[in-house]
Design brief:
Strand content: under 5%
Shape: elongated
Order of helices and strands: HHH
Number of helices: 3
Structural class: mainly alpha
Low-confidence stretches: none
């Protein structure tokens, strides 16, 4: 089920969406929905990184990665997009 929404965006964001539509990436709604889903995934990744870092054991190499991931979650997530 979908919900109709009316929203205002900056001109540069509207231009980006319209360019994506012209490039065949779907409708405006498709482009905006993908962007919102991407933001949801980014926030979930940041939350996971914080959880892993909270339980980190400094003796374990994988936990060292968890600490790094927590500190760099927003940068890493943005690179995945």
């Amino acid at each position: 089920m979908s919900v109709q929404m009316t929203l205002r965006v900056d001109e540069e964001l509207a231009a980006f969406v319209d360019e994506a539509v012209k490039a065949g990436e779907g409708s405006r709604a498709d482009v905006v929905n993908r962007a919102i889903r991407r933001e949801l995934r980014r926030r979930a990744a940041e939350a996971d990184a914080r959880i892993y870092a909270a339980d980190a054991d400094p003796e374990l190499e994988s936990d060292a990665y968890a600490q790094w991931a927590a500190a760099n979650a927003s940068r890493v997530a943005s690179e995945l997009d």
